[in-house]
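User: My collaborator sent over this chain with a note saying "see what the structure looks like." That's all I know about it. Can you take a look?
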Amino acid sequence: MPAWLVIAEEESGAQRRVTVVRTVSGNRSREEALGELLKAARTYVPSSWKSKARVVGRAPDGSFWVLPNGGGEQGSACCRIHLVEQVAL
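Assistant: Without extra context I'll predict from the sequence alone. Here is the result:
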């Protein structure tokens, strides 16, 4: 079975940061890894954000957007959480 990476892509102004939030490995199917992706999206707070107030939405491609809720951050701050399959080097 493949290993999966839950990735966070944070953007704020001109800065962009990509982080591996968690690795999903073992005998886990893609569907199980998608469940972990949902858990990560619900709990992830970008490290650069001052406020924990956020809203989470699912995009048509299956990824999630974590967006500031209530003006605690700049209007351009956003974070995308998505799943990628890890490949051997």
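A starting point for your reply to your collaborator: The beta strands are 4-12, 15-24, 54-58, 64-68, 78-85.
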